Amino acid sequence: MSSVIETIFYFFSFLAIYIQVFFLVTYIEKRKSIIKNPKNLKLKYYPTVTITVPCYNEEKTIAKTVDSLLGLDYPKSKLRLFLIDDGSKDNTWNIIKKFHNGKNIFAFTKPNGGKHTALNLALEKTDSEFFGCLDSDSLVHPQALKRIISYFERDKETMAVCPSIIVYEPKNLLQKAQTVEYHMSIYNKKMLGFLGGIHVTPGPFSIFRKKVFDNLGPYHKAHNTEDQEIALRMQENGYKIDHCPDAYVYTITPNTVHKLYKQRLRWIYGFIKNLMDYKRLLFKKKYGTVGLLTLPSGIIGVVGVIFLFVNVIYNLSNFIYHKIIQIQTVGFDNLFSFGSFNFDWFFFDTKAVIFSSIFMYGLILTSLLIGRKLAENKARLSVSIFYYLIVYSVIAPFWMLKAALNSVVSKESSWTQERKVKQS
Amino acid sequence: MNNNKQNDWKRYVVVFFITAAIFITGLWFSGFLDQKRISQLKSIENTISLDLQSSEIQFSLLEELSCEDISSSTVLSSELNSLAEKLSYSEDNIGIDNEEVISLKKYYSLLQIKDYLLMKKITERCGKESTFILYFYKNTECNDCTKQGYVLTSLREKYPNLRVYSFDYNLDLSAIKAMIAIYKIPDNLPALVINGEVYNGFKTIEEIEEMVPELKDMLEAEAKADAEAKVERKDGNK
Asked: Cα(A50)–Cα(A83) distance, rounded to whole angstroms?
């Protein structure tokens, strides 16, 4: 490894370790203040809440999603559901219009315009105190809404609360790997909540005070990641976003590499583009954690992974190139002799790079375990962690690289397109 | 709110120091192990140097001794190989420019020259058929050197009795410079010196085998020796 590359590597691993240590220190400091809601939580006051379900070609899952909303432990008179068909080409509209009762469930259909247009339609038609969205591939825990509303009750400054998103019935290896990732993001999100640095209010069941939209305006298209843009807009205006770890939402996650790739491409592309739109937040003391930690760590993540990937590819092709030269000069003799292999410690790689990687993996493992503890109340190791490390280190560089390239040439990856893939 | 902000700044600083401490520990530990590695190399080097000196003295003292006794007492090559492996690993991992590594390389080159001279003497005195290849290479800007390295490694596997000594052309060592002057080695590398004759540029296995017909004899002689040993073992078993 040449010294320039080594220096860059040290730079990134220093920053990566810094971010992980930052979360860990926050966790140690604040772990006692993570609220655990009782089973029979009672609120002093039940405000009116509108939940919007935007759907596009979701005939398979939409009924389940609506049923889970109907099962919420919340006074029916205070809860309104808006089911909005965004010009689906399948049977979605026929399914949702059966739920329409004109009292607390309203179904609409409109020409396709993207998820943000569906949400904005609902915003126009509602006057409730709280507003939220539930993606049509997700289901809510019966207590989720009450637990979230309790955060607003506790702190009048809180303007939005994100739930804990959990993978719904993971079946294959890829979904099990995502389970681990989602657990980790529960931990990250809770810590960012403490630090006031949440930069995404995820589509599945983030709840806002309605006045957020009254004051800041409706959803934007925002490169098909409206849930990132609204959070950044709130941060820019000093609106507090919190996270409720025991408000569970179960989401159906991509079950093939291709679908996962498409989804992440949209997320990372959206992150990069929104970051460009909100670059004024970067490194500004005024905007706190979002500008100083969250957004920079996202950049470090994307650039670091791409750097590592390019480096691995370079080393691999170098190795193959030398093997080819070897074959050309001496044929297949000794092709697989990598020197006499012996267990002399002398030949063990003990470069500082290795130590920092070991440390990094140790910290990642710690955050996985804490995430799991927050999600399931028990921190245990499982084989899924292994799947996660393998799957993500192999595939993630591809969507990061592609998203970075796309953002340079401004090629959008849309929600609609993703749904088309889902159908096939 | 103000208090909170202050706390935040404290956290950024504290975390920085924790991370720096982790990093420095890693760097220190890796440096410590590299140092241990170098001291291990030095101890190997000392052992070899001692062996070499004693065998040289033995050699000059016991000129009257029979050839068989002498050749069996100069088994340095295996230790040279072990040093070579570790040296090449250190070049890759500690660095070509590291002073310690360069000094070890010089030392290693000297050991090779000593071994070469000693083996040549034994060959002359005892009239044994031996082939030596002196190989001069460069570490940078020499693609053919890499290829030549593969060829020589392969040759050594094929002919275990062949002795290959490799020298870094650019190493600042008077003994190597003397050899370069003696054999008039030009700077277009790789260059091979086989039985006193200089060959320039990349040479394939076949070309080297053609240049050194003794190699084939060596193979035959070995096969013969092997067969004889087998017969002896069989006789012994009877």
From this structure: 11
> Any CB–CB contact under 8 A between A288 and chain B?
yes
Instruction: Say if residue A111 is preceded by a cis peptide, omega within 30 of 0.
Output: no
Instruction: Give residue for tokens 């995502």.
Output: A178
Gyration radius of chain A over CA positions: 24
**Record: fold of B129-238:** Glutaredoxin (3.40.30)
* Contact map slice: B 159-198 vs A, CB within 8 A: none
Can you identify the CATH homologous superfamily of domain A1-323+349-424?
Spore Coat Polysaccharide Biosynthesis Protein SpsA; Chain A (3.90.550.10)
By the CB < 8 Å criterion, does B43 face chain A?
Answer: no
Residues of A in contact with B8 (CB under 8 A): 195, 288-289
Going residue by residue through chain B (238 aa), what tens digit of pLDDT does each one get? 344 555 678 899 999 999 999 989 988 988 888 888 888 877 877 776 787 677 677 667 656 666 666 554 455 556 677 777 778 777 777 777 777 788 788 888 888 887 788 777 777 777 766 778 898 988 877 878 888 888 888 888 778 778 888 898 888 889 899 988 988 888 778 888 887 788 888 888 888 888 887 777 777 776 777 777 777 666 655 5
Long-range CB pairs of A255-258 (<8 Å, 24+ gap) are A255/A171, A255/A172, A255/A174, A255/A175, A256/A174, A257/A174, A257/A395, A258/A421
A5 reaches B (C-beta below 8 A): no
Sequence spans of domains, chain B: 14-126, 129-238
Tell me the chain A residues in contact with residue B146 when contact means C-beta distances shorter than 8 Å: 322, 325
Nearest to A25 among B15, B30, B34 (CB): B15
- Contacts for B36 with CB less than 8 Å, ≥ 6 apart: none
- Domain definitions of chain A by residue range: 1-323+349-424
Question: Strands of A79-86's sheet, edge to edge?
Answer: A105-110, A79-86, A49-55, A130-133, A207-209, A158-167, A240-251, A138-140
Distance CA A231, CA A215 (A): 14
Q: Give dist(CA A191, CA A34) in Å, integer.
A: 10
**Other CB atoms within 10 Å distance of the CB of residue A247:** 26
Does the ipTM exceed 0.90? no
Task: Give the minimum alpha-carbon distance from A188 to chain B in angstroms, rounded to a whole number.
Answer: 16
Cβ atoms within 10 Å, residue A142: 12
